[in-house]
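User: We ran a pulldown and think these components assemble together. Before we commit to crystallization trials, I'd like a predicted model of the whole complex to look at. Sequences follow.
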Amino acid sequence: LAKTTQPISMDSYEGQEVNITCSHNNIATNDYITWYQQFPSQGPRFIIQGYKTKVTNEVASLFIPADRKSSTLSLPRVSLSDTAVYYCLVGDRTGTASKLTFGTGTRLQVTL
Amino acid sequence: EAGVVQSPRYKIIEKKQPVAFWCNPISGHNTLYWYRQNLGQGPELLIRYENEEAVDDSQLPKDRFSAERLKGVDSTLKIQPAELGDSAVYLCASSPFGAGNNEQFFGPGTRLTVL
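Assistant: Here's a predicted model for the assembly, 227 residues in total across the polymer chains.
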């Protein structure tokens, strides 16, 4: 199982771009990288998923280098409402072998 | 579209009492997950269902925890008897794509406090 390592916490000012990096040195060939966001008293919410290079959607971008041993979630121009815990997950998309581990996540605090 | 529904939202019980949590996944989602989340930690997978079959229950403490998903729709997670260490948030999630690292839709969770 691919283990992930993320910073425990990050601070940012409103309007800045935030980049959260996740290390997954033993990622397997079939593994995808997925990021979730969790607010207090809510379940996690899917943000973005990718396999390689760059993926972008309306809320974030995901950068994955060629060796896929790390990935970076990029949040453009964060606002106070982006204060949350962000989890990086690595796992395959098929078969019963998949077992996703959320880890402790990165607690992002956005201030004025 | 309705999201994943869980009930109750909060539950307070004394140790050694039984407790049950209910989850109704998003309509059409055949994969259902139960997670436990301790304070300050990420969710920990307890069991995963594909339709009515439990395909991954290796993390479920089977001496006191049980789960069922009759008819492959809603699901119940039970603890009997509860212990102090079971205090946590129990999250249910569902996915339309089957097993694996696909987008999961989470419910709001049930916060259990064992006294």
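Residues 5-108 of chain B form a domain with the Immunoglobulin-like fold (CATH 2.60.40.10). That may be worth checking against your pulldown data before setting up trials.

User: Thanks, that helps.
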